[in-house]
Amino acid sequence: MMASENYVDQLNRYSHQTGETVSYEEVGCVGPDHSRTFKLRVVIKGQAYPEGVGKNKKEAKQNAAKNACECLFDKPADSAEYSAKASPALVQLKASNYTSWLNLHSQGNGVTIRPEETTSIGPVYATHWCKFVVGDKEYPAASGRTKKEAKEEAAKLVYQEMMGSNTLDTGDDTDSGTSSLRSEDLEKDASNICNQLKHLNTLTEDQSFAGTNFIGMIYMRCQERGWSCVFTEEKRCGPSHIPEFFYKVVINDKEYPVGKGRSIKEAKQKAAKLAWSELNHQSDLNKKVVSDEGAEAKNSPTSLKDSGQIKSNSLTPSASDSIVFMDPSPIIQIQSPDVKPKIKIAANFHNVCNKSKEDLINFKLKDKGNSQRTKTPTQPVSSFSRFTLDYDSIQSLDKGAFGRVFKAKHKLENKFYAVKIVRYKEKTLQEVKVLSDLNHCNIVRYHSCWIEDTTYQWDGSSDASSASQSSTDFAVKYLYIQMELCDIKTLRVWIDEKNIQNPKKSLRDSKRREDGLSIALQIIIGVEYIHSMNLIHRDLKPANIMFSRTGTVKIGDFGLVTPVINDDSENQRERRGYKGTPSYMAPEQRNGILYDRKVDIFALGLIYFELFWNIPTIHEKNNMWDDVRNQKLPLVFCQHFIEESQIIKSMLCFKPEERPEASKIKSDLEEHKRSLEALKMLQRDRQTV
Fold it and tell me: Which residue ranges form the domains of the chain, and what is each CATH number?
C-alpha cells in the first residue's frame, strides 16, 4: 500500500461493505502544547489494532487506519475473513496470489507441499530464501527481502514450472496487447483451477470436510468472478461450555444454506461447503441447459446450418458451454450465467405487444405461423419491459451511484411519475417496504414497484425514443420504483439560490426568514411522522428534501432508513454503522456508537441553520462547519436570529439525550411562527396609522 493513500477512506469502504463498525480511540497525548504527539488506534469488533502516532489528530488517525489496514488485508491466514469481505479494490492489496494458488493446488490434487526457508546474513541486510517441495519433487529456491516475499517468489517458480511461462501478474503494463493476453491466460488458469477442484464433490462428507478448506475455495471463486462474499452469523445457542454456532454465506446478496458447528470456524467451514456444493450444482445445471439448447438448435431443420445461411467462413460449434448467434455484425456470444458476459446485447421492441412475456424473455423467438424455435442471424434479441410498455415521454432527471431516476408518463393514466431504477438486492427492497407503509403529505408518495431483467439505458444525445434496454450480466435484476413526481429543484438548490444574494441584504430579507421557517416546520412535521413509525431516516440533508409541484416540502431518499428494535442484536449492529452523509452525521453516527432517532434531529439543526444564514461559497462553509456542528454559531447570526439560534443549538447538542424530540421542536417553531406573524401585523398597523 502506498503512503499517499487515504487509509481512513479505505476503512470506511470496508465498513460499508462488511457492515462492521470502525471506531477510533484516543490513546493519549504527550509533549508540550507547542509540540504535542497524539496517539489513536482503530477498534473493530472489540479488537484494538496498533496505535497510530502523529503531530495532530488527523495524522495520528491516518496512521492508525494504515496500521489497521495492514493487519486486515496483509495477514495471510488470520485476516482471511476480513479480506474477503472487503471491496474488490481492497482485495487487491493482498499480494499472495501464487502462494494461494499453490495451497489450492495442494488441496485440489491431494499433494503435500512443504516450504524450506533459510536466511543468509549480508553486509547490509539479511536475504531470505525459500523453496517448495511439492509431493516428492523439489522446486528451485527464490530470495526476497522478507520471508513473505521469498515465499511468494518461490511459489511463483512452482507455478511457472507447472503451468508454463504464464504468470498471475496483474500489474499495469504499457503494452495493452500483453495485458490482454495476460488477462486471458489468467482467466484460463482460474478456470483450470476450478475444474481441478470439482472432483472434491465426489468425496464422502467426512473426507471432504476433513481435507478441504471450503472457506478458502469460496473466497477464491468469489475473487475470480468479482463477487462479494460475506459470512454472517445466523444465531448461536447452547450452554457456554458447549455452544453451537450457525453461519451462512451470502454471495452477491444471495443467501446459501446455514452451517452448524461447535466453533465459529467449524460453522463457517460447513456453511462454505454447502455454498460450494450449491454453486457447482447450479453451474452444472446451467451448462447442461445451454448445451441442450445448442444440440436442439443443431438438429432443428430451421437452424442456421440447415437453412444455408452460414457461409464457409462462419464459426463452427465449439466444445464451450455457450450458444453462438451468427450475425454479420461482430459475433455476440451468450455465455452461461456462471460466466460474466463481455458484450452488451441490445434489445428490440418491434411487435412487442404481439408476444407473450414468456416468448420475449427467452432468446428463442417464434415466427408468425411457425411454432418451431429458430435462431435467425439478423433478427435482434427481444426483451419484455413493463417500463417501456406502460410509459412514454421518458426523460432523465438524475443519475448517481444508487441508479437513475426518470420522469415518465403513464399511458393509461396520462399522468407523470418519477421512476427510480436501481440494481435489485434484498436491501433495495427496504426502501420500497418503508415507503409503502408511509402516507404523509411531507413525504414523497410511493405508488408501485416491479422487477425487470434489464435496466433502461438513456441516450442523452437524442430523444427518449432512441433509448434502448440492455444488460451486461444476466444474473443481475433491476428494481423499478414508481413514485410521486416532485419539482426538480431540491432544498439544496433553494439554499444555493438564496446564497447568491448580498450577505447584508440577506440579513434584511424577511422573505427568506418566513420561507425558511415554513420549510423547517414542514420538514420537522415529516420527521415527527417518521419517528412515530419507529424509523430513523439517517440521511437527512438538503439534497434529499424536495418540493411538490405546489411547493409542499417532501422528504425523500429512504435508502438508509432503519427501524429501532432495541432487543434485536442485528438491528443494534445496523445502528452502529457508518452510514449517511458525513457532513450531516451526528457525532455518535460518525463514531460508530449505538444511536437512535436523535441523529435525525442533529442533521435537522444543520439544515435549519443553512435555511437562514448566507454562506456564499463552499470554502466559507468548510471553514465554519465544524464550529457550527459544535454549537458555535456566528455572532451576527445569533444577534439577528435570536429564537432560531436557541432552537438550533439545542438540536446540535453533543449528547443525543439532550436534543429535543421532533414534537418539541415542532411546537417551538409553531410558536415562533405565530410570534413573527403577530410582529409583522403590528408593523403593518403602525405604517397605516
Answer: 7-72 (3.30.160.20), 110-160 (3.30.160.20), 227-279 (3.30.160.20), 387-456+475-485 (3.30.200.20), 487-688 (1.10.510.10)
